[in-house]
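Ticket #4471: structure export looks truncated?
Reporter: QA, pipeline team
Priority: medium

Steps to reproduce: submit the single chain below to the structure queue and open the exported record.
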Amino acid sequence: MSAESQPISADQFALAIHDLPIENLYSKAQELSNSISHLERSNQQLQQYIDSIRSDTTLPESTRQEGDKDCADAIQENNIVIERQKERIGLLKREVERRGGRWHEADSSGKVNGNSEEAVNNGSTTEAGRSTGGRLTDEELRRQMTERLGEDDDEGDGLHL
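Actual output as written to the record:
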């Protein structure tokens, strides 16, 4: 990545997600949440390393006082990125709610409200029982595949393209 490249602004991000399908909004939020988790873990490891330098009595006092400047700088940069990513998750949430949906936070396992079977959107389904977006239950997936493949044919063999 070039040192000159800058992330898009929050306004540009909000505009870019305006027409995305709901499931894409949740997918992007999960991607951002995952990135935040990795950055926070990285910051913890970097901080532990800095702390180990500061507590290492075999090192000169000046080195212990300074710690590792590169690691400290990386922590600060990561914190900036984390805040930007949290802001984007907020924009994704606002977009879902603008469309009349209800926002559900996904936990680190990717489950929504502790139920991996629940659709990622607001849990609403159509009258036919199909999810209106997001993740599908096994039953919803089977139903959609049956509709698309036209299993009402008497010929059960082969793949129909």
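Status: closed, not a bug. The export was complete when the record was re-opened. Leaving a note from the reviewer for reference: Confidence is low (pLDDT under 50) at residues 107-132.
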